[in-house]
Structures are given as C-alpha cells and as structure tokens.
Amino acid sequence: MESLNKQLQVIKKKFPEQIERIEDLFGKSEDFRTLCADYFLCIKHLEKFKREYGEKKLTFKEYKVIREELENELFHFIFDV
Questions:
Q1: Of the candidates 49, 52, 73, which has an alpha carbon nearest to the alpha carbon of residue 61?
Q2: Each residue of 22-60: pLDDT tens digit?
Q3: Longest Cα pair distance anywhere in the chain, in angstroms?
Q4: Could you tell me if 11 and 39 are in contact, meaning their C-beta atoms sit under 8 angstroms apart?
Q5: Are 19 and 12 in contact (CB under 8 A)?
Q6: What are phi and psi of 6, to 5 degrees?
C-alpha cells in the first residue's frame, strides 16, 4: 500500500489552493482519508490501463468516470458544500 503522504500529495496537487483545508480534513476525517486512498488507487489504475491498453478499452473509461465521481466527492469535502 502506498504511503499516506503520497496519497495526500496527489490530493494537494489536484486542489493546490486548498492545502490547509485538505491537511485539516486528512487529520480529522477517516471518511476523507478513505476517499483520498480510493482516489489515489483510481489514479494509479488509470495510469496503468492507459499504458497497457490505451483509451479505447472500456475499463479505462469506467475508471475515468470513477475518478470524476471521486473528484466531485473530494470537492464537496474540501469546500464543505
């Protein structure tokens, strides 16, 4: 399993203007940490599928949809919407 620091860095890179909020949520919310871990794994799988199969495979498209859904959830956590 990847380190929590790597997971956190991926989220900070996605939302660079919200680093303090992200660190606060990461320290306080198990749900947010789980969401970050899911997002990190999704990104890793997307990279792997893209390398191995290209964008024409259904699996790649499915993970892109999952990534978008996870990004939306992250947005709501970070911006407390």
A1: 49
A2: 999 999 999 999 999 999 999 998 888 777 776 566 677
A3: 39
A4: yes
A5: yes
A6: -65, -40
Q: What is the DSSP letter of 57?
A: S
Burial class (CB in 10 A: 0-12, 13-18, 19+), 7: buried
Which pTM value belongs to this model?
0.69
Checking phi first, is residue 57 left (phi over 0); if not, alpha (psi -120 to 50) or beta?
beta
Asked if 67 and 39 touch (Cβ cutoff 8 Å), the reply is yes
Query: CA 4 to CA 50: how far, in whole Å?
Result: 24
